[in-house]
Amino acid sequence: MAFIKLYQQKLKENYAFLDMLFKERGIHWGVVTKLLCGNTIYIKELMNLGVTEMHDSRISNLKKIKKLNPNIQTVYIKPPSKLNIKKIVAFADVSFNTEIYTIQMLSQEAKRQNKIHKIIIMIEMGDLREGVLGEELMSFYEQVFSLPNIEIRGIGTNLNCLSGVMPSQDKLIQLSLYKQLIEVKFNVKIPWVSGGTSVAIPLILKNARPMAVNHFRIGEALFFGKDLFTGETIEGMHHDVFELFAEIIEITEKPNSPTGELGENVAGNTYEIDKNVDLSQTSLRAILDFGLLDMQPQYLLPKDHSITIIDSSSDMTVIDITNSDKKYKIGDLVSFNLQYMGALYLLNSDYIEKTII
What we know:
Layout lengths: L2 E4 L1 H16 L4 E5 L7 H10 L3 E4 L2 H10 L4 E4 L8 H7 L2 E4 L2 H13 L4 E6 L14 H8 L5 E7 L12 H18 L5 E3 L6 H5 L9 E4 L1 H5 L17 E14 L26 E7 L11 E3 L5 E5 L4 E4 L12 E6 L1 H9 L4 E4 L1
Parallel strand pairs: 1-16, 2-3, 2-9, 3-4, 4-5, 5-6, 6-7, 7-8
Antiparallel strand pairs: 1-10, 10-11, 10-15, 11-14, 12-15, 13-14
Cofactor: pyridoxal 5'-phosphate
GO molecular function, one term: alanine racemase activity
InterPro entries: Ala_racemase, Ala_racemase_N, PLP-binding_barrel
């Protein structure tokens, strides 16, 4: 069985880096745990670091967090669906919202459960995913701020999640202005202005964040140390908190091109033979014990840079080891660094063992 390792010390150092970054600037922050797919072993590791606020888009994951530690503040980071209102009030202390009808249902359910449910009103700022339009924000706020058992914890926005719109100082200033307008018009205080996710960290490092933006939701930077503007690793952080290991179950010298009539494979793809390739050429191929049920191969980065990933079927992945200086044999482990989506697929797979080092 292939397995994924989490390196405890690297995670600890990434967390310490971010915690210092935010505390020095008076910023509140929570860890986005959706990458962990509810894995309790890894969630406990976050709790051991001292994380007090966890964000997720799956109610089942928030339920696990609350079971492990009821004192963790849980945040549901997408607009609630009607069918899940009861569970959201039960297991999420805070939820992101964009619809008055939904907030009215949350209010009614919170009253039934004798709870105060906190909400963050999400504002559309160009990425065209969830968010109230800016010109409708005042009217929206007016309709929800007096609902019973609802506390408006803050306003926020999501960028770079759908259309790839990057955060900028101008956009965060605009978000700050919405806070000021609400506070002046309704004579209230908005505790949080939630300025986004890991993609905003470069702005924080450059001190380009407006002071009013005082809350962030961080996942990818914690686990991958990545600057999402440049694609590089942030200085002082680790990119390899996670690592995949897969066992070689076959090694054979085989032709470079298939033979026979070609049709679609299991993934719906059709192999095209390169007419410039010498069909008599061969390569040394190895088969690994994981496949498309577990991940998508484009998100894997072999640590042995001479290896080429050829393709995957449902349960197996074929690699070319012809150019490797290492003399691989049956039973050897091949290791991979992971991109964010690669880790997400693997952690969601029941067929990949999860371990801690």
